[in-house]
Specification:
This protein is of the alpha/beta class and about 180 residues long. It is built from eight helices and seven strands. The chain is about 40% helix and about 15% strand. The strands form three sheets. Strands 2-4-6 form a three-stranded mixed β-sheet. It has a two-stranded parallel ribbon with strand order 1-5.
Length: about 180
């Protein structure tokens, strides 16, 4: 999705996902169907997604890295807030084709790296794509999105800790 994506933006056709076109086809056939687009970082203790990958990479390389010469940001949502959004969408009868499960709209990747470095007592440094290996496309992507419409449509208000607050907890590094 483009930086600052909103619910009405169409996904990048270069990154095909079958769930959204399938839901749109069902809706066109008169079946209530919608897509919930999750933030790139769905976090919370027990998370096994992107941030734990970054933590593992920092431990293995001895540096908490962020993309060199790239000012990118990721959206985030706590998994319990995402679960509430799914529940609200179902309870309200799915009135929209797309909802965004986004609590933090644009968390600078560099800030994520600094928290990881702080908790692992590692240096925080810029690195090129090669450092991130297969994960480089994700690390260098700016995946920031808005959930303003979703919040209005569903009355959804995230209540759990934001991404940086959650990552500042020592428990996150015991996984």
């Amino acid at each position: 999705m483009p930086r600052g994506a909103v619910e009405t933006d169409l996904p990048n056709s270069a990154v095909p996902r079958q769930s959204e076109p399938s839901a749109r086809r069902l809706a066109e056939a008169g079946i209530r169907a919608a897509t919930v687009r999750l933030a790139p970082s769905v976090h919370g203790i027990g998370d096994w997604g992107f941030v734990p990958m970054l933590i593992r990479m920092a431990r293995e390389t001895g540096v908490s890295a962020y993309p060199a010469d790239h000012d990118n940001a990721w959206s985030g949502v706590h998994r319990l807030d995402a679960a509430r959004l799914y529940r609200l969408a179902l309870e309200t009868g799915v009135t929209e084709p797309v909802y965004h499960a986004v609590a933090d709209e644009a968390v600078p990747f560099k800030d994520i790296a600094y928290l990881i470095g702080k908790h692992l007592d590692l240096p925080v440094e810029p690195r090129d794509r090669a450092h991130f290996g297969w994960f480089a496309n994700f690390a260098f992507a700016s995946m920031a999105a808005s959930s303003v419409f979703t919040r209005f449509a569903l009355g959804w208000t995230p209540k759990e800790p934001g991404l940086l607050s959650d990552l500042d907890r020592p428990e996150y590094y015991r996984q």
